[in-house]
Amino acid sequence: MARRGETIELAVLGLLHEGPLHGYELRKRLNLILGWGRLLSYGSLYPTLKKMLRERLITEVDSVPAPVTGRPRIVYRVTDAGTAEFHRLMAEVGPNAWEDDAFGIRFNFFSSTNLETRLRVLEGRRTRLEERLARVRGDLEGEQKRPVRSDHYAIELRRQRVEAVEREVRWLSDLIQAERDRQDERGTAPQTS
Amino acid sequence: MARRGETIELAVLGLLHEGPLHGYELRKRLNLILGWGRLLSYGSLYPTLKKMLRERLITEVDSVPAPVTGRPRIVYRVTDAGTAEFHRLMAEVGPNAWEDDAFGIRFNFFSSTNLETRLRVLEGRRTRLEERLARVRGDLEGEQKRPVRSDHYAIELRRQRVEAVEREVRWLSDLIQAERDRQDERGTAPQTS
DNA sequence: GTTAGCATGTAAGGAGTTACATGATTTT
DNA sequence: AAAATCATGTAACTCCTTACATGCTAAC
């Protein structure tokens, strides 16, 4: 369950959920969401689209002839099966769902989900980050016993990283609180975009 | 030039540069440096060590029999060729050297480098991050022209990420300033660990 | 007595990149 | 006249993970 390749598939489904797009444009938007370092290549995107076509998650829209280049651009839209898969993946709680990319993609499409799912994703991410912090702090204690060689730069690197994670935890806590406030305002909300 | 697998090789060389270690212990230290999400598997580490052995970058130290487990642990140390390779990689300015992992590893072993190299790495990373920020800001302007659908969550995600990158840029700037101050104090410094 | 940690390794497979192939149009 | 952008696609390769195989000791 929860293959790794699902993260890109989820992003494609999410983007097409907002309207039909062709491959080239999809890649640009994808890179905006994945942002930071990762630049998805065509050699990865086009085969993924082909695969999703085969699985009937998306279909070709009656192709607009050709605007700029000689070759026609192929416009895709989600099928009903694709929409179902999108919602399934958004709500899924697999162990991969909290990694940086997977979390970022889910967060990006939060508007298309309900409050319950959002809370689950946000809290899951926070728990994951707190586990990491606990692990690092455990390591630090272990090192205090037998002084491993306290390297100035190595320590500074860890300090900066711990701070960044702590900051994200606070950010998540604020968001979780904001979602809970909404939850209180309306007992049952019509939240599905 | 600058294959991707060199990042782990560099980390191994850096750790062994501080003293001989066996595979199991190497993995633990590696995960401390790579930290955050990435957990290097044995299926990746042991073949890498074998490969580095073949390339004569490391050698087996006269194996300590066996402390806890039945099987002997194999202790490695760097060769002269390995040390040379370590310094070569640390100073290298290839396009991969500024990615998160590659930068983190180089930073972690800064104590084993000279001031010139440290400045090159820090400034390179900062330039890379500033390019990213410029790209994102360009995208934002492009979107203001034809309003793409301003999604609350998507905007919040980008805001948070931009802030994190801006924070790292400030961190880098402080470090660069600190290194420059040292540079001024001593015209020619004996900085090589 | 069962779980966690120590310790090394192999085989199969997944997810992605790089390099290649092709070619028109717009900007510099 | 060159470079960038538009637009799609394939083949080879790389790096890494997962799952498997093996077995001992310490802690709970």
UniProtKB/TrEMBL annotation, chains A, B:
Protein name listed in UniProt: PadR family transcriptional regulator
InterPro entries in the record: Metal_resp_DNA-bind_regulator (IPR052509), Tscrpt_reg_PadR_N (IPR005149), WH-like_DNA-bd_sf (IPR036388), WH_DNA-bd_sf (IPR036390)
Keywords from the UniProt entry: Coiled coil
Domain Transcription regulator PadR N-terminal residues, every copy: 12-87
PANTHER family in the record: CONSERVED PROTEIN (PTHR33169:SF26), PADR-FAMILY TRANSCRIPTIONAL REGULATOR (PTHR33169)
Cited Gene3D superfamilies: Winged helix-like DNA-binding domain superfamily/Winged helix DNA-binding domain
Top-rank taxon, per record: Bacteria
Biological classification of the source: Bacteria, Bacillati, Actinomycetota, Actinomycetes, Propionibacteriales
Coiled-coil region: 112-146
